[in-house]
Amino acid sequence: MSTRRVEVRTQRPYELRLGRGIAGESLAAARRRSRFAVLTDERVWALHGERFGAGDAPVVIVPAGESSKSFARLETVLDALAEARLDRKSCLVAFGGGVVGDLGGLAAALYMRGIDVLQCPTTLLAQVDSSVGGKTAVNLAAGKNLAGAFHQPSGVWIDVDLLATLDDADYASGLGEVIKSAVLAGEEDFARLEANAEALLARDPDLLLDVIEACVRQKASVVESDEHEAGPRRALNLGHTLGHAIERAAGFGRVPHGVAVAVGMQQACLRSAQEGVLQDRDLPRRLMSLCRRLKLPTGLEELRESTGAALTEGELADAMRLDKKGAVWILPVRLGEVRAVEPRRPS
Ligand SMILES: NC(=O)c1ccc[n+]([C@@H]2O[C@H](COP(=O)([O-])OP(=O)(O)OC[C@H]3O[C@@H](n4cnc5c(N)ncnc54)[C@H](O)[C@@H]3O)[C@@H](O)[C@H]2O)c1
Ligand SMILES: [Zn+2]
């Protein structure tokens, strides 16, 4: 089967490739450079390392999970790149989920003032979202993603076969971002998810290719028009104002990002109706029903029950005040149209 290609025309253009069994092609591209190293996490490496085929290239393995997005870990990665004697023409292949992608992207942005990074995302979330667009970061004690840089990858290899081994919870998290992308795209994309919810849950590879391609085409075009998130790229934050607050209030790592976004999106829909912004009255019901079929929570109450986190109104409001993006709400108007609304100032 042929590989699909999507071009991202940023200042320095690059290509996304999508297909089955194509992860190893990222290494072929890396081998054409002077030297390269692979960054991955323990879980991904245990499951897919052998088939990835890095040969005797240096492989830097970090613990799986959000705790690896730290300044301390960043330093050990940079030390490992120096030890592997990477030079300015070398590159780093980030083989893992959003954690490895963000950490690897930032390490590549910093090492020798910037070397190339090739992304080979292994979670659904990373394939539809975090591997495209060049945002990289680690977390600080004060909050998530507070130290980072824009550093576009030199290429992205999206291999849907890797998704077969993902935990259901991690897969569901990616589906939250898939639904978000469809709400932003419009009726056709949303209806495709409704028509194929069961096949999507079953991780049908051909359907996944179509769905992921739609997500990355959308992200690519938004990123092209707004590389450094000055305006239009903000629409991608649909569901994220409350979503980030949920993640923060529950304690980072307890509610997966995309699950929090799914709940945030449903809440944005309700708020949009309350504020008279929502035009499509059927959207809240359709969104909730799709979330239910894709095994995502259908609202805050269900999330509280399933996680045991209190997530009180007060906690969420406090968490939103700490949001570095100023808690701008992206409210759906109808499928394919959103409006950004500034937070109300307390009177
Ligand atoms: N840079 C961006 O634009 C952007 C966008 C969205 C999210 N993010 C970041 O992405 C991170 C979340 O990404 P994530 O959800 O991929 O988390 P993750 O990288 O922690 O992966 C989740 C879990 O899945 C495991 N895993 C990865 N691939 C697997 C596979 N193929 N089979 C089995 N297990 C696998 C990992 O080891 C980990 O335990 C957050 O830190 C978030 O801030 C960044
Ligand atoms: Zn997100």
Summarize the structure in words.
- The protein is 46% helix and 18% strand.
- It contains 14 helices and 11 strands.
- A hairpin with a 2-residue loop joins β10 (329-334) and β11.
- The longest helix is centred in the middle third of the chain and has 21 residues, at 205-225.
- 45% of the residues are buried.
- The protein binds nicotinamide-adenine-dinucleotide and zinc ion (ZN).
- Residues 129, 177, 240, 257, 261 line the site of zinc ion.
**Biggest sheet record:** 7 strands, mixed
Shape designation: globular
| CATH topology name of the largest domain | Dehydroquinate synthase-like, alpha domain
Order of helices and strands: EEHEHEHEHEHEEEHHHHHHHHHEE
Mean pLDDT across residues: 94
Number of domains: 2
N- and C-termini, Cα separation: 60 Å
Say which CATH homologous superfamily of the largest domain is assigned.
Dehydroquinate synthase-like - alpha domain
Bound molecules: nicotinamide-adenine-dinucleotide, zinc ion
Number of helices: 14
Please state the CA-atom Rg, rounded to the nearest Å. Answer: 20 Å
CATH architecture of the largest domain: Up-down Bundle
Helix content: 40-55%
Query: Roughly what fraction of the amino acids lie in strands?
Result: 15-25%
At the first level of CATH, the class of the largest domain is Mainly Alpha
Reading side by side through the largest sheet, how are the strands ordered? 1-2-9-6-5-3-4
Question: How many β-strand stretches?
Answer: 11
Output the structural class. Answer: alpha/beta
Low-confidence stretches: none
